Amino acid sequence: MHRKISAHYIITDSEVIKNGIITIDKQGKIVDIQSLGNDIKEISGTEFYNGVLVPGFVNAHCHLELSHLKDKISRHTGLEGFISEIVNLRMSSDNEIAKYMQQADREMVKNGIVAVGDIANTSHSIETKMQSGIHYHSFVELFTSNLNITNNVFKAGLDLEQLFKESGLSASVTAHAPYSVNPKLFDLITSHLAKLKSIISIHNQESEAENELYVNGKGALYDMFTSKKIDLASIPITGKSSLISIAANLNPDDNTILVHNTYTKSEDVEFVVDKLNKLYWCFCPNANLYIENRLPDIQLFRSKRQNICIGTDSLASNNRLSVLDELKLISTAFPDIELPELISWASINGAKALNIDKFLGSFEIGKRPGINLIENINLNELKLTNESRVKKLV
Ligand SMILES: [Zn+2]
Q1: How far is the CA of 43 from the centre of ligand 1 (A)?
Q2: In terms of pTM, does the model score above 0.85?
């Protein structure tokens, strides 16, 4: 039995269809998309909703395994304060961790999220991901500045990547951030990814202190690491920003997801655009406000016609896992960005970044993207409002 679903507008891949009807089969696969325009006739058996239909959301950056840290970390302490607190906090019982991960997974399903690029430092999330309806790509995140243990860190990462894959889950090793990965570890990771034709996801320029570390070898991150006796000698002082300093370590043809970009400047974007062919800038604005109380210069990336995608980050730095809430924040801060563009960031761009756009991310015949209804929208201007809500229909 097919289902026919309609609403005032359908938005997919930056395109707006007025009074369209999407027909899906029992498995949720799209079999037909019709546009009725202004000519609405009553079509029997069609479910009609007030609002806008959009494809299932892709959350391009999350840390499911940190879900138990909700409300545990102080706000606005800067990245160095956040890291300092999280290192001391990550001990909870396995049962507690599992319970909060399952809750977070259910929250994402309810919020219309169908795929997640999820950072994993442990095997904790495997069970939850195996049982979930969400498609997860797990980025097994590696870091060390210590050259002596680099081979062991990498080997443990490969073992964990394998464990995810043996559980039927999509996974690949990745680098945590420029300042936490020494050049040798970077090289091991990117050589491995080149063989897989895979994806790298890196926290990028989340604080100004990260740039300072490379520019002059000083600053708040430097002070925090040295106070914890972490040796940063393997991180080169280049006089350049962190991103420019590590760009040569990245494979030009890997999907490269740069996450946060709160302190990324025009010259940084120009430098990497020339070197990386499949570049995605992932914004997690609620987490940026939580940690640094500052938003990235989103207009800079738009003006350079960059691929933008959206992440929620973890419940350690956000009080909900909702892609729509991230869009609402962006829409309030940058009111001239139109809804179809925001929806493309939240769906097709994330799907492309995670290499799953053949199956989801847009309404196209043959895809199974899921269907979300956004209610309480300003339909005249096609804008999100504070009251906009997402309801998962398929
Ligand atoms: Zn993160």
Answers
A1: 46
A2: yes
